[in-house]
Structure formats: C-alpha cells, structure tokens
C-alpha cells in the first residue's frame, strides 16, 4: 500500500481552488463516509459555496494520510447525491442547491434516527403526544439556558 504524505501541516493544506481542508478523522465510522460528511459540514457552514471548488481526492488523501481511492469514494457519494459535480480537467465543485439538499438529507436522517425512535419509546412508556411535546419543549428551553 502506498502511504501519502505532505510537507504541509496536517489539515492546513491549501487546495488550488478548493480552499483549506477541515476536520479530522476518527475510528467511529468508515473513512469515506467521514470525508463526505466533512465536506457536507463545510457546505452547510458556508466554507464551500455553490459553484466553488472543493479539495481534490489527492489533496484530501495528502491531508488525511489516506488512499486517494478512499477520498474518491467519499466524493463520489456526494456526486451521486447531486451535492458536487465534476468539471472535466478542473476538479469538483459544489452544485447549485447543494446546501438545501444536504439539509433535506440530514432532516430525513434525523427523523428516522431520532424522532421515530423517540415516539416508539414514548409509546412504550405510555406517553401520549401531548406529554412528548411537553418534554421536547422543556428540553428545548433547558438547551437555550445552557447557551
């Protein structure tokens, strides 16, 4: 296996037109999924705007010391989802409407991963809709006072 390294400080590399590389990898999930998630996060935060170039697979590979094929797999997920598109010979760019697509995707995942299980658990505890809504409202108020 080839090991890719760079003389640039880790996570501080500057892509030709794609901007800096942000974030760090963990052992919690597959690397290519983490790459896709970090790029989505950067799109949501406005680091990469519509029609702006993102780091190339080689730049990501150097920054995170990973195989370029792994970085490409993460980018290809975003291409398949309409979040990024390729300009032949130039690189990958943020697609128009990408931010909203990412938000919609994450809202759907939030609903499936948190809201539906919350309702199931609430029902198993004998809580009705009103009680669940009261609990959510209370948690939201507590969250506001913590900030």
Topology of this structure?
Layout: E1 14-15, E2 19-20, H1 31-44, H2 57-64, H3 68-80, E3 84-87, E4 91-94, H4 98-124, H5 129-146
Summarize the structure.
This protein has 147 residues and is mainly α. It folds into 2 domains: 14-96, Arc Repressor Mutant, subunit A (Orthogonal Bundle), CATH 1.10.10; 99-146.
Number of strands: 4
Molecular shape: elongated
Query: What is the CATH homologous superfamily assignment of the largest domain?
Result: Winged helix-like DNA-binding domain superfamily/Winged helix DNA-binding domain
Question: Which regions contain 5 or more consecutive residues with pLDDT less than 50?
Answer: 1-16
Order of strands side by side in the largest beta sheet? 1-2
Classify the helix fraction into a percent range: 40-55%
Mean pLDDT: 86
Number of domains: 2
The CATH class of the largest domain, by name, is Mainly Alpha
Distance between the termini: 46 Å
At the fold tier of CATH, the topology name of the largest domain is Arc Repressor Mutant, subunit A
Largest pleated sheet: 2 strands, antiparallel
C-alpha-based Rg, rounded? 19 Å
Order of helices and strands: EEHHHEEHH
Architecture (CATH level 2) name of the largest domain: Orthogonal Bundle
| Structural class by sheet pairing and helices | mainly alpha
The tally of helices reads: 5
